[in-house]
UniProtKB/TrEMBL annotation:
It comes from the Archaea. This is Uncharacterized protein.
């Protein structure tokens, strides 16, 4: 079983955008497959015992109009394994997830997977970044992570749907 990106969807706030107006795009996708299954408490415990207590995933997104990159984005999701004494968690080793520079402390494995592997990104473009005329915007997505006790280094990619809009000078 391998890892893959599923449900890559790009949505727009307007059908037309003027040069002085902002355009809000919403990008959402999930990272599924082997890595999602391997990211479990049992594997966290094994990895922690071997001093492998961090997971870092780099996500690169190119918002494109045709072949031209309109806006490149790069962001990181991290997970840190730690020893916990939280009475709500029945395990010795647990995880915290850093998403958009904010740490989260999930109370279940499914919540941890969702925080780390489900991406919902709001992207702000201005009308000046697009030339006048019709555009077909899409997102090229690349996700990579390194070797850990529970996974090999992987790079996966996908492309979102296209949204059509018109830029007006």
């Amino acid at each position: 079983m391998s890892s893959y990106i599923s449900g890559a969807t790009l949505e727009k706030s307007h059908d037309t955008v003027k040069a002085d107006q902002p355009l809000t795009l919403s990008l959402s996708f999930k990272i599924d497959g082997a890595i999602r299954e391997a990211f479990s408490q049992k594997n966290w415990e094994k990895a922690y015992n071997k001093h492998d207590n961090g997971f870092r995933m780099t996500i690169e997104v190119d918002i494109k109009s045709g072949r031209k990159v309109v806006m490149p984005l790069k962001f990181v999701r991290k997970a840190a394994l730690f020893w916990t004494r939280n009475p709500k968690i029945p395990h010795r080793i647990w995880v915290s997830v850093v998403k958009d520079e904010t740490p989260f402390y999930p109370l279940s494995e499914d919540e941890a997977r969702s925080l780390l592997f489900d991406v919902n990104k709001v992207i702000e473009l201005t009308g000046t970044e697009l030339a006048s005329g019709a555009h077909r915007l899409s997102a090229d997505i690349r996700v990579q992570w390194g070797k850990h006790d529970y996974t090999e280094p992987v790079e996966i990619s996908a492309r979102s749907n296209e949204v059509e809009l018109r830029a007006v000078a």
